[in-house]
Amino acid sequence: MNADEHPVNDAPAGAELERKIYDAEFVTDDTPRPAPSGIRRWTPAGRRHTRTRIARWLAGLLRRAWQSSPFVRARSVAAYRMRKLPMDVARLAWFVARGHWRWLVKFWNWATYADLRADARSARLAGNTEARRTAQELIRSDAKARWAKVGIAVRRIVVAVRVLGPVAIVLWATDSWLDRADMWPWLADVYTGMDAVWSVLTVAGPIVLWLAPLAWLVAAVFEGRDKTPGAGWLVHPERDDNDSWIDERMISVALAHLGITPLNRFFKDGGALAYTVAARKDGDGTYAQIRLPLGVTADMVAARRPTLAANLGRASLETWPTKGEEDGLLDLWVADKGALNGGAGDWPLLTDGQVDLFDGVPFGLTQRGLVINAPLIGANWLVGGRPGQGKSACLRTLLLGAALDPTAELWVFVMGESPDFDPFTPRLARYRMGMDDAVAEAALQGLSDLLEEMERRGKVLGQQPGRPPKVSRKLADQRHLGLHPLVCAIDECHELFQHPKYGKQAAEMAIRLIKRGRKYGIVLLLATQSPTKDSIPREVTRNISCGVAFSVADQIANDGLLGSGKYRAGIRATDLRMNTDRGTCVAVGVTDATFELVRTFYVPFEDGTDDVSPVIARALAIMQETGRQIQIQTPDRLEIDAAPVDHLAAIAAVMRDGRRVRTQVMLSRLAEHNPAEYEGWTFADLTAALTEQGITPVKSHGNMAVRSEDVTAKLTARAQDTTGEPGGESDGEDTETRGGNPRTSPSRNPRSDQRKHPSGEAGEAHSRLFDTPENPRKHGVGTSAPDPLPAVDSPDDWGSDDG
Ligand SMILES: Nc1ncnc2c1ncn2[C@@H]1O[C@H](COP(=O)(O)OP(=O)(O)OP(=O)(O)O)[C@@H](O)[C@H]1O
């Protein structure tokens, strides 16, 4: 109790007790409760309590802010800078000194024409009188111009002093003799204005005088700075964040230590690289574009990729220096550390969705993390790489996408014992797998049928209104036309192209399909372990539109898959590590970019996991919904003329009525005449072929040449041998139907694959899929049939037997 009035017991003894009122209040430690009336009473204890709570809250807030990452970072930067302060001061002093030195050097160069003198000196050493004279004349004329400029400046100063001097004297005299009040008002205003200017000058002058040395120092520091862009060292104390941090300065430093002489010289002379695109975040990495200095090309940088990667603290695979639009432009993409290790994730169509092949098939993720919709229509693919790196899986993904387009017809030939495509069986119109000759034969038959189909489609397209140049979705949807997408995949295709009996023809047909089939919705997907020039025809690699290289061993394999010159330009699948980078490939032609580093989607079919079959089941359901059916095709046995190319006939054809043809000219004519056979032939090959035919080249005007009479004599002798008659005229039966040699006359011969099938049924039987009564595919096109395709390419593509 806190009583401030007198207690009852204080009354004197015997005094009458009188009533008193006590004023008191109870004080406890409890929080004061609000007054019931709603009027808040602030007691001192309550105030203390509130203050304590606010103080605690503020302390918590400050502690949290202090420990928050921006503050921690700012503190660490500040602490770091404090520690580095002596070093920074020394550094700035060094910059000031170096800046003055550079100014001095610049002034000296300017004053003495050092650059022009150096030019003149080197011209004299090189004995180039013209260049020396030009440099000397330039020095003379420039010196003249320079002195002329000085003269003009001096004259202007003199004129200004002459004009302004008397005016200033008159103004001063007037102001001294006359009171301002007695002046004309305008003159008084002039003086007032001048006074104002003068007061500004008296205030600003000292400030400028103080600031000028500071500005001078800053300018000297700027001039003497390290001439590498960016100021990363100010804000990135340690390179602890180099996992993802790449800036222009780091790139410049990395480039400066590549050991490329002109680049080293450039940096030594204080040069600063020009960044046409400053380093910026691009997907899972950093992209920059750099204009390289004189004497340096992007290829030179690409050739030192491992060093560049090491300088940037990355793996080679994460560092992509490639040629930009010009040789002197370097495109550099550097992946965030470890960003490429993760797979591409689930295939987007794994559980749901349908495909329109004209829009492409989800295939993988680019280095920038974007999904690639791989083009299939209008494209042909060559997929390659070392064993077990993901080729078949990639082919499978493309085919799975195609399977989800109900209009697509799929053929698969696997030239080896591999069950990779077994789950596709119910969705495939043709499927053969195995190592025996029968599979090679079936694949060749497939190619031959595709050529026929291409011919038919050419005809159909030509009959459509407006003669469309290629198959479109709209045309493909019209079932009666039979222009639906037709995708043929050949896994381990090198086995087919190297087949002793069928290889040559298969190569020839594949080349023609690749060159011409794209327009007609016919797509060829080839996969191989061995992309060398012996295993894959050069014309195939040259004309393929989408090249995909998983890890490959060398430059030859790299360029065989991606196109020649790619390795030199820095587009290298050789940097993909065997097994570690399984499923990652370098691809060209799949997007508009020069190349893509793709992490392909993987739909497993191994070790008891089968995600392929459910997709195929879905594909079949979609087909059923849309009323499409698959008819499994069982082609009859192939009757393909596997006869070797008739060199004598080809030689006769390229003589072109000439008396003699130089062997060199003959080689180029032969390559033109039948590129699949003769491109790449050397003089040794030609000599061997001539010798085989019993023809010896003769010397003519210092060059080796083939005589027309020799060739004609050999042809006549051969004809006599064939017919058993002198003069050797044909008995009316086409030589080819006897399995013999093609005609040597300049008339157009049919190609083997355009010849009649032995039975009309064979063609009918194996080409039923998606056929309609209105437009059945015709097989066994007559030898005399005119070229049915619109004349879109050179006729040589069709008739290499042409004379
Ligand atoms: N995109 C991918 N993501 C993850 N793993 C993959 C991927 N592609 C392939 N693999 C793995 O690599 C293994 C080999 O793949 P695949 O059979 O496609 O290789 P390949 O190059 O066709 O081999 P081969 O030349 O022997 O036929 C697969 O079983 C799978 O484990």
From TrEMBL:
Stretch list, region Disordered: 717-803
Ranges of compositional bias, category Acidic residues: 794-803
PROSITE patterns: FTSK
GO MF, one example: ATP binding
Residues spanning the membrane: 153-174, 196-222
Biased composition (Basic and acidic residues): 750-777
Domain FtsK: 367-559
Protein name as annotated: S-DNA-T family DNA segregation ATPase FtsK/SpoIIIE
Organism lineage: Bacteria, Bacillati, Actinomycetota, Actinomycetes, Pseudonocardiales
